Amino acid sequence: MVPTIDEQREFWDWHWEHWQERKTINEWKNRRHETILSFLRSLSLEDPRILDLGCGPGWYTAPLAYFGTTTGVDLSEEAIRKAKSRFPNIQFIAGNLYDLPLPTEHFDVVVSQEVFDHVEDQIGFIERVAYFLKPRGYLILSCANKFVMDRLEEGQFPVQPDTHIARYVNRKGLKHLIEAHFRFLRLKSILPIGHRGILRLVNSHKINAVLKYALSSKYLEGMKERLGLGHQLIILAQKKG
């Protein structure tokens, strides 16, 4: 059973109240954000209007604001309270993205970091993104890679409450979900992990230790990422029309 919006909001309020013990800021998420910034930088847009969907307390919204006028949106009122307190010069809005009264075709870029996995209606999410974006506007979206998530060792990530939605997609599934409204431009996977199935060999410490005599650690990690074996998928797409 899908949790109600109120239950989801309560979960995310609790999440952001306990962000330190839940290790919300870490090297993985910083790497993800740097990749997103590199995608945004590659667009060379002049003072774009940016919408950060699922902005949390605004830590990763603030760097987006260096590129252009930025608005952060999150379901959690607790997250938005923290964001407004830390970054008073950025507009933050608490609300449900499915009925948020934002203007149509207003933004040049929508960024969404690790939110897509946790929404009740992924098709509706993409439709709302398309509604907010100008024609030929850009979507930069990150989510967990189902191929990797299905092959994690038990206990590698903490067990989540029932009110936590987790709907993972693989590369093909992600492209399929956006194709009605968006033209795919680029997809990158980062942070290779997992030790089940084929990943037991790919990420074997013994095998990788031997390979490092001929190939650098950086090269090995990059090769796995190019093969789509990273924990995170990051996609750049452009709205049709």
User: How much is the radius of gyration in Å?
Assistant: 18 Å
Total helical segments: 10
Total of domains: 1
Mean pLDDT: 92
CATH architecture classification: 3-Layer(aba) Sandwich
The share of residues in helices is 25-40%
Q: Give the spatial strand order of the biggest sheet.
A: 3-2-1-4-5-7-6
Give the terminus-to-terminus CA distance.
37 Å
CATH superfamily: Vaccinia Virus protein VP39
Q: Percent of residues in beta strands?
A: 15-25%
Contiguous runs where pLDDT drops below 50 for at least 5 residues: none
Reading off the top of the CATH hierarchy, the class is best stated as Alpha Beta
Q: Give the SSE string.
A: HHEHEHEEHEHHEHHHE
CATH topology (level 3) name: Rossmann fold
Which structural category do the helix and sheet elements fall into?
alpha/beta
The major pleated sheet works out as: 7 strands, mixed
Q: How many distinct beta strands? A: 7
Task: Tell me, briefly, the overall form.
Answer: globular
